[in-house]
Amino acid sequence: TDPALLRNFCIIAHIDHGKSTLADRMLQLTGVVEQRQMRAQYLDRMDIERERGITIKSQAVRMPWAAGDTPHVLNMIDTPGHVDFTYEVSRSLAACEGCILLVDAAQGIEAQTLANLYLAMENDLTIIPVLNKIDLPAAQPDKFAGELAHLIGCDPGDVLRVSAKTGEGVAELLDEVVRQVPAPVGDADAPARAMIFDSVYDAYRGVVTYVKVVDGKLGRRERIQMMSTGATHELLEIGVNSPEMTPSDGLAVGEVGYLITGVKDVRQSKVGDTVTLQRHGATVPLGGYKDPKPMVFSGLYPIDGSDYPALRDALEKLQLNDAALVYEPETSAALGFGFRVGFLGLLHLEVVRERLEREFGLDLIATAPNVVYQVTMEDGTEHTVTNPSEFPTGKIAEVREPVVRATLIAPSEFIGAIMELCQTRRGTMQGMDYLSEERVELRYTLPLAEIVFDFFDALKSKTRGYASLDYEPTGEQAGALVKVDILLHGDKVDAFSAIVHKDKAYAYGVKMAGKLRELIPRQQFEVPIQAAIGARVIARETVRAMRKDVLSKCYGGDISRKRKLLEKQKEGKKRMKMVGRVEVPQEAFIAALSSD
Ligand code: GTP
């Protein structure tokens, strides 16, 4: 296809503002999917995505559209919608020349939309502002057209109005995509360079890699090279999605499509990498490649210890499809054998955990998530800590933690509540802007660790669900951080060690000790529960000793009855874990780990 006739675009929208519905309507209008075959939400393939209403993996669909009399080719690139996947979003955007900024006409702009809009602006995309759901009685298109126009600096009259549900205005929107979005430009005679913006594992075909060709051409049966690693592969198949995979002879400048090389692991085909040809290949990769970096870690343990091999296999399988997922085996005195798993963020963690439980039928315990700490000792040695129980002992010069730049949007009546919350979470205010008279955008830097703990929930309850939040990592900062250990009868319970700010250490210690006192059954002896920083005890509770021996009940009874009772007791012990001399039912650990 002549690049002049190509238009590559994506849709930026907040959850529930109607991106999938609009995408479906476009597929239908362009004849790519017939009405009869129309399956709701064609683009979201995974069950979990559908149920949770989030789009995790992006894909691209090619659609023909004749604007006036000239047939054009539109490539719609689906961007993941959540904060954890910022890098993937940025690569999807980099594959486009324009984007549709889709906003619910009854809701207005939200933090997530704004964050992605900023990314689109950084990538110099043409932005087409669109209000959706104008069929709703509650829609206030005039009001929100003003807000959008103010935000991106256009005329309120330029804001398009559509209903993805009824189809009203959608054909006009496609015409505007052709009119406003620039055609891709590239050098057809230069050595081939294509940018990977998505990489998906398919059980039958292996990894399917989505690319945009920037320069040159990729053809069937050629040998390609991944520029970040130098690895080469044969192109077994190349083609476009329309909407099913359709093989072709090749992809040329500006075109978007898929590659299949037979590799089985998405880490061999990384998002952001540049694909070139092995012979006469390019020497300079396209910019912007980054390795995915896990930001949040959690220990995952099978509730039933015999599921450990199944958990290992499941993680191996998931990693084929998820280059950002990292894990290594870990042992916990309290929880047994498991894995320390690294995630891009909280949502990523939840999605992985849910897939392990649902697709692989595993029952899991997850330890409280923690961020990655950098510790410098006084003798100059450095430690990277992904597990609080491995926090170094000895003379520490400095502890650094990751920080994020957060954007919060809410009705202005909640400004006070949000400022208070961010204050207690060690936030620093960076700025505040009114989007309209009654809606405000607040910008903060916050330690990631403070967001990892129930920040969303606290924000929601303080703003009655009206606030939206987005954040992106911006580096690290030093903090007065200490490790708090929890000891049972003098023995450390590794799963409860936490790294917290020193002002919050006491509260954490008191809370955990209190929780455990409630949950741990009485033993033959008194069990002290202590919270300590190093050797210094900061909180203490006691589980008092059992008053009577179980056996005393059958004092004088016959021996067989006694044996039966002991037998029974052994049964119950199977689910018990020993921490030093103390027996703790596994349920107690699970309950103590679950946030309240
Ligand atoms: P995620 O995939 O979760 O990000 O959501 P989305 O932005 O793709 O939203 P989706 O298309 O799933 O739409 C969310 C809800 O809004 C669904 O219940 C749709 O039926 C509804 N909806 C979408 N567009 C319209 C519209 O134009 N009018 C009305 N009345 N409802 C709409």
From TrEMBL:
It holds the Pfam family EFG_C. GTP binds at D16, H17, G18, K19, S20, T21, N132, K133, I134, D135. GO terms for molecular function: hydrolase activity; translation elongation factor activity. It is a peripheral membrane protein. Residues 4-185 form the Tr-type G domain. The keyword Membrane applies. It is found in: Cell membrane. CDD domains: EF4_II (cd03699), EF4_III (cd16260), LepA (cd01890), lepA_C (cd03709). It comes from the Bacteria. Its EC number is 3.6.5.n1. Belongs to the TRAFAC class translation factor GTPase superfamily. Classic translation factor GTPase family. LepA subfamily. HAMAP family: LepA. Required for accurate and efficient protein synthesis under certain stress conditions. May act as a fidelity factor of the translation reaction, by catalyzing a one-codon backward translocation of tRNAs on improperly translocated ribosomes. Back-translocation proceeds from a post-translocation (POST) complex to a pre-translocation (PRE) complex, thus giving elongation factor G a second chance to translocate the tRNAs correctly. Binds to ribosomes in a GTP-dependent manner. This is Elongation factor 4. The lineage of its organism: Bacteria, Bacillati, Actinomycetota, Actinomycetes, Kitasatosporales. The gene is lepA.
